[in-house]
Specification:
It contains eight helices and twelve strands. By secondary structure, the chain is α+β, with helices and mostly antiparallel strands. The strands form two sheets. An eight-stranded mixed sheet has the order 1-2-10-7-12-5-4-3. It has a four-stranded antiparallel sheet with strand order 6-11-8-9, with no helix packed on it.
């Protein structure tokens, strides 16, 4: 029997009567393991969320090709949003679709060269499932719930409860992604074999953005590096989410909160997961020691914009395959 990592549970239905207790619970989780469960986000339909994955990933290749990123389909214009296929030879063995909240193209602050603000692309629907409408509605539900979680985090660290709002309310870059992990067939690349002899479909990494809400249906396979430096599985949460923080929030709190390493194992069958990545606006200040702006304690805050930091990180530090050819631009 596997020794699953025991995670605390944030019950969103109990926020009003237990606000201070819940904020302390969140802070403890973020300071230690960096992961927790989140239950009872009102309005999320997990059955339809699975149907959305099933509808998309069972579409014929020509439908997927129509929204595939330019890197893999030069006939398309979308570089940042849309679909990306399984890449032969890569240890990350998955296909995915992602979208964000579109900006008004007439907004003078929206530079058409800025691919991070690219408009989302959508597959042609066949009338069997309301794909776009359902996912946009779910995006809005998760965005609203995330702001409530951020409010609890702010209370827990003793800064104004709306302090994080300035990062997200003006053209946020948050990303909603649907992922399909097929089991490896035949020989897999050496890089997909871990040091402890397991096979991954997503290698060891930390999330880059601010915070992630992840739903994995009833699929296991997610493992987290615990405080002893050992890999430990996280049990799936069929009626809830798994929350973890990314590099952005960790650096903003000067490392107080943990962006924890995690990976996805090949479970021997197809697997879906749906992460909602909370990302600030392009110009949002995510500089180190950001919290100290409010507390007036500790090392001096060093301002830095999210967009340029993100582009440099994913292209030149983490070197993610799906971002490596994206063009540089002035900002």
């Amino acid at each position: 029997m596997e020794n699953h990592l025991n995670l605390p549970v944030l019950n969103m239905a109990n926020i009003k009567p237990d606000e201070k207790a819940l904020s302390r619970q969140i802070i403890n989780a973020l300071e230690t393991v960096g992961f927790m469960y989140v239950d009872n986000i009102e309005g999320v339909d997990f059955v339809k969320l699975y149907q959305a994955c099933d509808w998309l990933f069972k579409q014929p290749m020509e439908v997927k090709d129509s929204i595939t990123r330019k890197l893999w389909n030069p006939n398309n214009k979308n570089m940042f949003r849309g679909f990306y296929p399984i890449v032969p030879g890569e240890p990350s063995h998955k296909e995915a679709f992602e979208f964000g909240r579109d900006c008004d193209p007439s907004d003078p602050e929206v530079d058409p060269k800025n691919w991070m603000r690219e408009a989302s692309v959508w597959p042609k629907e066949d009338g069997k499932f309301p794909f776009k409408q359902f996912l946009v509605d779910t995006f809005n539900i998760l965005f609203k719930a995330s702001l409530e979680i951020f409010r609890l985090v702010a209370i827990g660290i003793g800064i104004p409860d709306n302090a994080f709002d300035e990062l997200f309310l003006d053209k946020p870059l948050s990303t909603f992604r649907l992922i399909h992990y097929p089991s490896w067939q035949g020989k897999h690349p050496q890089a997909a074999i871990t040091e402890d002899g397991k096979v991954v479909t997503t290698p060891d990494h930390t999330d880059t953005p601010f915070m992630t809400l992840l739903h994995t249906f009833d699929f296991d396979g997610l493992e987290v590096m615990n405080s002893k430096g050992q890999w430990q599985p996280i049990k799936s949460r069929p009626n809830g989410f798994i929350m973890n923080i990314g590099d952005v929030l960790s650096r903003m709190t000067n490392g107080r909160f943990k962006a924890t390493r995690h990976r996805v194992l090949d479970i021997g069958r197809d697997r879906y997961s749906v992460p909602f990545f909370n990302e600030p606006s392009f110009d949002a200040d995510i500089g180190i020691n950001w919290v100290n702006k409010f507390t007036k304690e500790g090392p001096e805050h060093v301002p830095e914009k999210y967009g340029p930091w993100y582009m440099h990180t994913v292209k030149h530090i983490k070197k993610f395959a799906e971002y490596k050819t994206l063009p540089e631009f002035d900002y």
